[in-house]
C-alpha cells in the first residue's frame, strides 16, 4: 500500500535490492522507496481484529485473514460494498491498521459455484499512449493474455490508486487534474462459468 511517498513492499522472501529491481522492471520511478517490513503474528492478529470490529465488516469487507507466510493482512471486498466507496474503504483501513502492516486487497470476494473455473494469465495488459494532458490513452496488450478469451470486460481508471468516478471505458482522455499524478487502470475479465479476474496495470505518470 502507499504510505506517503513510500510503497511498502513485503520483502520477507526478497531483499530490498531485489524488490527495487522488481519495481524498476514495471516502470516505478526512483522517488518511491522500498523498505523492509517485518511484522509479528500478534500485530497481524491485532490488525485483523480491528477490521472485524469496524463498520466495514460484513458489508464492504467479506473476509479478512492474517498471513504470516506473506507477512501481511489479506482483505477481500464484497461484490457490492453498500454505501462504502473504494476511497472510503482505503481511508478506513489506513486509520484502523498500523501502518507497519502491509495490506493486500482482493476484489469481489464471493462464494464460488462448484462449476466456477479460473482464467489463466500469460502476460499483462498495459497503458498505451502519450502521457500528456489532453491526450487519449488506452488499455493495450489484453488480447491473448487471458485463457479462455473473456466475453466481456470492465475497466476502472485510477489516479494515484484512487478510482476516477466517470472513467470506466477502454480509453481515457487525460485531464488537468492528472498532471504529475500516476495513472493506472483496473481490468476485469468476465465469462460465464468463470470467476471474474481483475488485474491492475503498472501506473504511468502524466508528465505534462
Strand content: 25-35%
How far is the first residue's CA from the last residue's CA? Answer: 26 Å
- Look at the helices and sheets and give the structural class: alpha+beta
Order of helices and strands: EEHHEEHEEEEEEEEEEE
Major beta-sheet overview: 5 strands, antiparallel
Uncertain segments are 1-14, 109-115
Provide a count of the helices: 3
Shape: globular
Roughly what is the average pLDDT, rounded to an integer? 75
Identify the notable features of this structure and list them briefly.
single chain; 208 residues; alpha+beta; five-stranded antiparallel sheet; three-stranded mixed sheet; 15 strands; globular; disordered N terminus
What does this protein structure show overall?
By secondary structure, this protein is α+β, with helices and mostly antiparallel strands. Helix content is 16%, strand content 31%. The strands form five sheets. Strands 10, 11, 13, 14 and 15 form a five-stranded antiparallel sheet that branches. A three-stranded mixed sheet has the order 3-4-5, with helices on one face. The longest helix is centred in the N-terminal third of the chain and has 12 residues, at 41-52. The protein starts with a strand and ends with a strand.
Amino acid at each position: 500500500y502507499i504510505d506517503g511517498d513510500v510503497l511498502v513492499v513485503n520483502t520477507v522472501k526478497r531483499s530490498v535490492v531485489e524488490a527495487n529491481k522488481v519495481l524498476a522492471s514495471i516502470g516505478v520511478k526512483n522517488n518511491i522507496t522500498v523498505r523492509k517490513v517485518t511484522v509479528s503474528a500478534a500485530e497481524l492478529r491485532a490488525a485483523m481484529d480491528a477490521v472485524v470490529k469496524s463498520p466495514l465488516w460484513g458489508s464492504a469487507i467479506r473476509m479478512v485473514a492474517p498471513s504470516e507466510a506473506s507477512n501481511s493482512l489479506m482483505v477481500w471486498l464484497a461484490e457490492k460494498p453498500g454505501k462504502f466507496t473504494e476511497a472510503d474503504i482505503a481511508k478506513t483501513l489506513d486509520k484502523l491498521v498500523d501502518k507497519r502492516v502491509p495490506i493486500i486487497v482482493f476484489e469481489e470476494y464471493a462464494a464460488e459455484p462448484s462449476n466456477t473455473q479460473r482464467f489463466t494469465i500469460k502476460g499483462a495488459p498495459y497503458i498505451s499512449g502519450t502521457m500528456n494532458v489532453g491526450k487519449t490513452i488506452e488499455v493495450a496488450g489484453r488480447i491473448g493474455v487471458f485463457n479462455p478469451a473473456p466475453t466481456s470486460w470492465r475497466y476502472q481508471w485510477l489516479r494515484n490508486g484512487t478510482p476516477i468516478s466517470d472513467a470506466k471505458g477502454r480509453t481515457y482522455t487525460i485531464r488537468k487534474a492528472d498532471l504529475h499524478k500516476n495513472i493506472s487502470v483496473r481490468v476485469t475479465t468476465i465469462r460465464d462459468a468463470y470467476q471474474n479476474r481483475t488485474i491492475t496495470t503498472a501506473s504511468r505518470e502524466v508528465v505534462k
